[in-house]
Amino acid sequence: MTCEELSACVNAQQDGVVIALFVQPRASKNSLCGLQGEELKVRLTSPPVEGAANKLCCTFFAKLLGVSKSSVTLIRGDKSRHKQIVVEGVSLDEVKQRLAKAF
Length: 103
Prior knowledge:
Helix content: 25-40%
CATH class: Alpha Beta
Number of strands: 6
Order of helices and strands: HEEEEHEEH
CATH topology: Conserved Hypothetical Protein Mth637, Chain: A
Distance between the termini: 6 Å
CATH architecture: 2-Layer Sandwich
Structural class: alpha+beta
Radius of gyration: 12 Å
Low-confidence stretches: none
């Protein structure tokens, strides 16, 4: 996966970098799977019950991007597979490079 391909799902805003996600819960392991439309597909081990998948999603991306857990916030899609998170404290280019290395 290249940084240019990630441009469809990763955008800069004034409060941080926004990443559009398609989340598949109850997977065998946490992983990035590629692009699905204009969203980054991510598989998570947690079930979609009582916000567990949302919490794991933020924790997974914090670790993946090398930022604190409090720097990653779910901003859209609390009860949907289509989610958006915002990452604070890193630039757009850093996020794209770190995501590209994770594949």
